Sequence to fold (281 residues):
Amino acid sequence: MTRMAVYAGVFDPPTMAHLEIIERALRIFDEVTVLIAKNPSKGQPLFTADERVAMMEASLSEEQRRCVKVSAYEGLTALYAESIGACALVRGMRPYADADAEIALALMNQSLAPDLPTVLMVTSAKNMYLSSSFVRETVLMGGIVMHGSVSSAVEEALRYYTIVFGDGRKVTRDTEFYGVQLKQGDMVYALVSGANRDPRAYEHADEFVVDRKRSNHLGFASGPHRCLGAHLARREMQVAVEEWLRVIPDFRVETDEPLVERGGGAMTSLMNLPLAWEVEA
Ligand code: HEM
Fold:
């Protein structure tokens, strides 16, 4: 007998964490039906149900497509899952943020469909804190995203929002550079933030691609003065993002005004970034 589990959610948009849950579910069940909620209770989704179905389908491997069905649905998940012959419900669970809500949901589904157990799964550590809301915010702030992880997002932030945007250097000998005569002792300024968005070096150079595969950016400069603290800085940024998402997984940019960056000396930063999130009483 084929054992089919239902993995239902909003998937706005699908992330690597969702794909990992599907992969893990397939180690237990013969088939997985991914049900994408058309009208989630959380509010208006960023992507339409059709877009989310298409994104999820496009993210599956050839092999997975043979045993994973994706469709949109409306109504009560447990009853719908029972009606299509599921033997279990699968849910992904992140620590802290999700645990209480997921257990409450499992109990509610159990009362609606007592013969349909819920299997709560965790992802590997690298996808543990990845959430659709994080990916969604990136989309809203101008990025294009499909898969992602915190470390590739940090790397892309270092490229796209180059913090140390330029390097000053003293010319050591008379030379010509692209037709410009430079004399020994002249000061030059290399705008690495411009190089970091060079379309000859990066595909979609002017977009924030959260899962960019290869990024040899100049966010830490290059050559003999390359940042000595690059590894520590990366780690700190990653921990900061992970901790933020652990405590505040769902947030939004609370302004319709354009976000303004200001440079001073060699550093650049946002003048203002109003964020908002719901706080439970
Ligand atoms: C996101 C954080 C950071 C960014 C974007 C950054 C960026 C840079 C850049 C662009 C340079 C080269 C400056 C130049 O070429 O003139 C530099 C140099 C340097 N950075 Fe960082 N840095 C960061 C964090 C850190 C940390 C955490 C440390 C130490 C723990 C550190 C230590 C250094 C040192 C010692 C140099 C001088 C290297 C040299 O001149 O030989 N940086 N950094």
About this structure: Confidence is low (pLDDT under 50) at residues 142-148.
